[in-house]
Amino acid sequence: NRFQQDEAARSESVKQKEEEAVEEKEEKEPERQEPTEQERFIKLLYNTMLENEVDEKYANQIVDDMEKAQKPNLPFDYILADVYQKMILKFGRADGILPAKNGPRAVVFMGPTGVGKTTTIAKIASRYAMEEQKKVALLTADTYRIAAAEQLRTYANILEVPFRVVYTPEETKKAVEDFADFDYIFIDTAGHSHQNQELLDNMKALLKAIGEAAEYQTFLVLSATTKYRDLQRIAASYREVSDYQFIFTK
Fold first, then answer.
1. How far is it, in rounded angstroms, from Cα 133 to Cα 119?
2. Strands 245-249, 215-223: pairing kind
3. Three-class SS string for 15-71?
4. How many CB atoms lie within 10 A of CB 15?
5. CA 59-63-67 angle, 5° bins
6. Which residue has the higher pLDDT, 184 or 144?
7. How far apart are CA 199 and CA 192, in angstroms?
8. Are 192 and 83 spatial neighbours (Cβ–Cβ below 8 Å)?
9. What is the pTM of this model?
10. What is the pLDDT of residue 147?
11. Helix (H, G, I), strand (E, B) or coil at 96
12. Is residue 163 within a helix (H) or strand (E), and if so which, with residue range?
């Protein structure tokens, strides 16, 4: 049947044109490539920053820096180290612990429970006592957790430096006076909720007593794993206690 033959020829012609059109489109459009492992890693890091409430502006800056420095087959550790260095440059240089003009420098560590204050004190005390050969004493006003006091006592024994537990602001002042010929007195305090006004008031009284006996410096110790908004709330509540510098752990 001629009609059927013509219809078959038309169908074949349409099919051929469609195939040619698809081929032409594929030639014009570059083949979509799967994202590289590095690109997936950068996207994961970006999403993680946003989930942890890092300001989108800063997250974009970090990702832009990473993408500019991208090279094939770079290990992730290298990429993270590079990001870390760039962040440190943005933060600027920390002042650290400054020696007192006269007498000892009392250094007070405060902050929420579980951020690592006691371990941080041990590390810093070790540096000053062992590496810099300074006269160091350790005090703890954390009488809520016996384990914390014993932990600091153990560190003091290892470093062979004096250690004392103080229960009141008056005892703290007396201890600081007793160590008047030392270079540094590192003081651990009880960790507690930043919403506990009574304990914040106790901290004020403790700092007042220390200030009557020596020059002091206060550090607010915070965990870097804490949500950004929680960090802001904690920092604001401790601001009414004293001016402070930050130490970030973890």
1. 20
2. parallel
3. HHHHHHHHHHHHHHCCCCCCCCHHHHHHHHHHHHHHHCCCCHHHHHHHHHHHHHCCC
4. 10
5. 170
6. 184
7. 7
8. no
9. 0.73
10. 82
11. coil
12. strand 163-165
